């Protein structure tokens, strides 16, 4: 009886390596070309740091409330669950009762984390 395991040989990876080399070559070519052809005018205004068209004022190392970072991290955390819920919703009928119960456990754990965040007052701004 033959084994169903396929032994990969280096030539199997050749198309991937060619595509990677072509992409890398294009990036190097584009960066080199823009560097050689682009204008080279340096000035004090061009070298100044700007943020959204507004000139920087003050020290960039001023303390920022941790609540800003917590809100950003929580947004990412609670936004990423959509990545798991969307495929589940698309294949809802195929997963049946077992898939529904697994998603129920997932949403329950997610809601437990959300209520913990609310109880701790992390989303309360003063």
UniProtKB/TrEMBL annotation:
Q: Which Gene3D superfamilies match?
A: NADH:ubiquinone/plastoquinone oxidoreductase, chain 3
Task: Return the broad EC class.
Answer: translocase
Q: Where in the cell is it found?
A: Cell membrane; Membrane
InterPro entries the UniProt entry points to: NAD(P)H_OxRDtase_bac/plastid (IPR023043), NADH_UbQ/plastoQ_OxRdtase_su3 (IPR000440), NDAH_ubi_oxred_su3_sf (IPR038430)
| Membrane-spanning residues | 16-37, 68-88, 100-118
Bilayer topology reads:
Multi-pass membrane protein
Q: Which reaction does it catalyse?
A: a quinone + NADH + 5 H(+)(in) = a quinol + NAD(+) + 4 H(+)(out)
GO molecular function annotation: NADH dehydrogenase (quinone) (non-electrogenic) activity; NADH dehydrogenase (ubiquinone) activity; quinone binding
State what this protein does: NDH-1 shuttles electrons from NADH, via FMN and iron-sulfur (Fe-S) centers, to quinones in the respiratory chain. The immediate electron acceptor for the enzyme in this species is believed to be a menaquinone. Couples the redox reaction to proton translocation (for every two electrons transferred, four hydrogen ions are translocated across the cytoplasmic membrane), and thus conserves the redox energy in a proton gradient.
Q: What is this protein called?
A: NADH-quinone oxidoreductase subunit A
Q: Which organism is it from?
A: Pontibacter actiniarum
Name the gene for this chain.
nuoA
């Amino acid at each position: 009886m033959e084994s169903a395991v396929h032994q990969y040989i280096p030539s199997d990876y050749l198309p991937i390596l060619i595509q990677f080399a072509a992409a890398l070559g294009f990036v190097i070519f584009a960066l080199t070309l823009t560097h050689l052809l682009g204008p080279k005018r340096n000035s004090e205004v061009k070298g100044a740091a700007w943020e959204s068209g507004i000139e920087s004022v003050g020290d960039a190392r001023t303390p920022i409330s941790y609540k800003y970072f917590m809100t950003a991290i929580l947004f990412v955390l609670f936004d990423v669950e959509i990545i798991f819920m969307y495929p589940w919703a698309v294949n809802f009928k195929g997963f049946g009762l077992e898939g529904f119960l697994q998603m129920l456990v997932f949403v329950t754990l997610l809601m437990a984390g959300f209520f913990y965040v609310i109880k701790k007052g992390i989303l309360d701004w003063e």
